[in-house]
Specification:
The protein is mainly alpha-helical. Among the domains are: 58 residues, no CATH class; 166 residues, no CATH class. The protein is built from 9 helices and 7 strands, in the order ααβαβαβααββααββα. 13% of the residues are buried.
């Protein structure tokens, strides 16, 4: 009897022990799962913090960029405004010059149509008027040329309604136009760094490299063409700047001595025979440009405003209008960028 009770109690204890073991085992498993989840949460938190700091750094950099861009836009707007004012002044100066040129041409035409006969009495009056009438405004009195005074109409006189008493012609504005052209060349040199413009800078007296590239590409049709083109171009660029080589000769036309290009020059003919018309024409064009710009003495090159679309020298009007268009385009681009920011 006692033995049975002991066995029953032992069985009860074993059952309780098994129950506790299962409980602790489940608790341990749950703990491990919770620990793993907590580890993942901590790792994710660290990653989020890293992303936060990275985004914060990018935001600060973006803010600095925006501030710098705004400063550049403000400076660009100010520069654009100054460029517009400068272009307006240039255009006004050019318009004034063209108006003076037109007036001078009209006066010359009018003078040729109204030539008045001269006599000694009129000559005495003209001599007196040269001393009495000062030059006014942009006009001057040609006191040293009484024979020209006889050919001027009354509409060209200053404070003198009597025909034939004096001659007045506008002063030459060539110096102003030369200064204006030099100023535009400097402006275009600053913006013409990459080429591709309709109006730009051409170096007169410099060989056209494309002619040599095409000739070598047609002759070799291999990777050697580029190297051959570079060497040939350098050789002839050096040759045309050599003052000891003079492919010009003097001819007499109607009693006048003229210096013309000798197309039968041995070196030119050798170039044409070996490399074709392209390089030959490029060399001739460069030499003629040097002659046109009086650079044969030192064989230097000259910057010129050039209309690449029409392949000719650009007029001052074309240059100022093109600059104005470029400024307008730049203003539109800057406005679009500022809106995006």
């Amino acid at each position: 009897m006692a033995e049975g009770m002991a066995m029953a109690r032992a069985g009860s204890l074993v059952s309780k022990l098994d129950s506790k073991i299962c409980y602790h085992r489940d608790a341990a498993l749950e703990y491990m799962e919770i620990k793993a989840v907590v580890g993942e949460v901590i790792e994710e938190k660290e990653m989020l913090q890293q992303d936060y700091h990275a985004l914060k750094g990018e935001l600060e950099a973006a803010k600095k960029t925006i501030v710098e861009v705004n400063k550049e836009l403000a400076a660009g707007n100010e520069e654009t405004s100054l460029s517009k004012k400068e272009l307006e002044l240039v255009k006004k100066k050019l318009q004034d010059w063209e108006a003076k040129q037109n007036l001078s041409e009209q006066q010359n035409c009018s003078a040729s149509e109204h030539v008045q006969p001269s006599n000694s009495k009129q000559g005495q009056k003209r001599s007196m008027r040269h001393q009495e009438v000062p030059s006014q405004g942009p006009l001057r009195i040609d006191a040293d040329k009484p024979d020209l005074a006889e050919e001027r109409p009354g509409s060209m006189l200053v404070n003198n309604p009597i025909v034939g008493q004096t001659s007045v012609v506008p002063p030459s504005t060539d110096d102003d136009m030369v200064a204006l052209r030099e100023h535009l060349i400097k402006q275009f040199l600053e913006i013409d760094k990459y080429g591709g413009w309709i109006i730009g800078i051409k170096e007169m007296g410099k060989l056209n490299v494309k002619a040599f590239e095409i000739a070598c590409a047609e002759k070799f049709r291999t990777t050697k063409a580029a190297d051959a083109s570079s060497k040939l171009y350098s050789l002839w660029q050096q040759r045309i700047t050599d003052v000891s080589w003079n492919p010009f000769h003097t001819v007499t036309v109607e009693g006048n001595h003229q210096e013309v290009l000798n197309v039968n020059d041995d070196k030119l003919q050798e170039l044409k025979k070996e490399w074709g018309e392209g390089p030959y024409k490029a060399v001739i064009d460069a030499l003629m440009e040097m002659k046109e710009y009086n650079c044969l003495g030192d064989r230097s090159t000259v910057y010129e405003l050039w209309n690449y679309r029409a392949d000719r020298k650009a007029t001052l009007t074309e240059c100022t209008e093109y600059m104005a268009d470029r400024v307008q385009q730049l203003t539109v681009v800057k406005r679009r960028r500022s809106r995006r920011i």
